Amino acid sequence: MNPAQAAKIDTSQTLIDDFELLQHVVNESGGDPGFELGPDLVLFMGDRLVVCSPKQMWDWEVQDYGRPRIEFQDKGYYVSNKLSGDEDRPFRYELTPWPAQLRATPSQTIVYDEGYITNRDGRFKKVQSRSGRRSRMVFLYPFLGFAWSGMKKDVLEPHGFNAVRISLMSCIMAYTVFLMELISFFMFASGMLQWMIGNAFLAVDYAFLLILPVDAAIRFFQIVNGTSRYPDGFLEWIISFARQKREEQLAEAEDYRDSQ
């Protein structure tokens, strides 16, 4: 064993001692237990991995269907187990190689690297635009978070807008409009737009009153739990939910046919 390997084992010895699953990790990994990736620790267990992290990764879910695919060093994995850790790295994820014969489409593909960790640990940090200049869309800032995730990724982020921050702003704005609608109905017996513009907008007032709080609550849950780097836009979660349910149904149908 060379000094570098000895140092790795020494630094992770306390982790291995109090972690039953990793008691044989050195033997299974051929003497190379793993390495640190930013604040995380990646441990090798044969063809499997165990990722020890100080932060919970909400999008790393243990699921039978619609499971996320984790890409690490050009190999695919899925989360097969979640385990408790120590004080420094309380969250541990066991990753198993993605089955080559698996037909189901992953719910999402996550590239686990330094960029992912940087984004995870600094999700609300400012994003520098590619041009280095302030975007002309800044005056639309309160509304940009309603854009769907694809636009946030391909258009807004290159212009210097953090997808999580603008999504949070849009949730706050949605709740503000919802409260204004409530006040308007209770105080003036009419919707906000109906009172300001006319009766033709009463249907829009009711739509705001019913849809905005539900949409904002679901998207706020995505933001708080960090389920995606690019949170859904206005009502986009309906499409995401329908797509996931469809994939689960197809996977169940394929499993049923295979069992016959």
Q: What this model shows, in words?
A:
- This protein is of the alpha+beta class and 260 residues long.
- It folds into two domains: 119 residues, no CATH class; 124 residues, no CATH class.
- It is 45% helix and 15% strand.
- The protein is built from nine helices and seven strands; from the N terminus they run H-H-E-E-E-E-E-E-E-H-H-H-H-H-H-H.
- It has a seven-stranded mixed sheet.
- Helix 6 packs antiparallel against helix 8.
- The N terminus is likely disordered.
How do the helices and strands line up, and which of them pair or pack?
Layout: H1 3-17, H2 25-28, E1 34-37, E2 40-45, E3 48-53, E4 69-72, E5 75-84, E6 91-97, E7 109-111, H3 114-121, H4 141-144, H5 149-156, H6 163-188, H7 192-196, H8 202-225, H9 236-259
Parallel strand pairs: 4-7
Antiparallel strand pairs: 1-2, 2-3, 3-6, 4-5, 5-6
Helix pairs in contact: 6-8
